[in-house]
């Protein structure tokens, strides 16, 4: 039984915003986080895309959620399915500005957030395949600054966890 969540970060496009206008923001990478215990990031930061263009990361990662070795991840997935009011039921994607090498005094800065609800994948019984999700401005959660194309294959793992919940 395949007990994995597969995540792919395909590409990123930006709409006109303070991000595209900001010349200190030049290179971007994307971090993907599952709750508090797992964070992965694209190994490359790529030059900020200009009007209408997209930058392509084509980065894939796998989160193992088998019972034997990944108990914490599995318990977290259980809590998503069993506690309907759990706020942190999403994979969180963060678009991060990577300072240029000659500006090492600048910090990496989170510029936008995007979310994929694992609970929703389970409720709809449908994985997310190459889907555009909104990236919201880190300084204003109501403003969309771009689109991130992602794949999140979690349904089989969630089904397996759900079966286990029924048997517990």
TrEMBL record:
Residues 3-164 form the RPGRIP1 C-terminal domain. GO terms for molecular function: thromboxane A2 receptor binding. The gene is Rpgrip1l. This is FTM protein. GO terms for cellular component: photoreceptor connecting cilium. InterPro entries: C2_domain_sf (IPR035892), RPGRIP1_C (IPR041091), RPGRIP1_fam (IPR031139). The lineage of its organism: Eukaryota, Metazoa, Chordata, Craniata, Vertebrata. PANTHER family: PROTEIN FANTOM, RETINITIS PIGMENTOSA GTPASE REGULATOR-INTERACTING PROTEIN. It comes from Erythrocercus mccallii. Pfam families: RPGR1_C. GO terms for biological process: non-motile cilium assembly; retinal rod cell development.
